[in-house]
Amino acid sequence: MITCFIRYEIDPYKKDAFMEYARNWGQAIPRCGADLVGYFAPHEGSVSTAYGIYHLPDLASYEAYRARLKDDPLGRENYEFSQREKFILREERQFLKIASTPHKGQDL
């Protein structure tokens, strides 16, 4: 199991647009095959840092998931929405594997 952590730098004046973006991914991501942990928007502290987190079995599954997401109508629409509204200033994606044990029966 791998976990994708996406760190976003967002325009603090467009937080509502990011919230809509996150809600849309909340529908599209699970439908396309990833186990969505959630999207997290600024609440206190930094007003420009947000996160998206989801699990997949491996990188091959990630590639298949990305292809399905690209063909998903809401996925395409959400990507176009982010490009049009420009509320994401920067995006960083990392893939991590859990290192602590035990963890709800997941194999390392």
TrEMBL record:
Location of the NIPSNAP domain: 5-100
- List the SUPFAM superfamilies hit by this protein, alphabetically: Dimeric alpha+beta barrel (SSF54909)
Q: Which residues form the signal peptide?
A: none
Q: Entry's InterPro entries?
A: Dimeric_a/b-barrel, NIPSNAP
| Domain of life (superkingdom) | Bacteria
Q: What is this protein called?
A: NIPSNAP domain-containing protein
Q: Which organism is it from?
A: Thalassospira tepidiphila
User: Which lineage ranks, top first, belong to the organism behind this chain?
Assistant: Bacteria, Pseudomonadati, Pseudomonadota, Alphaproteobacteria, Rhodospirillales
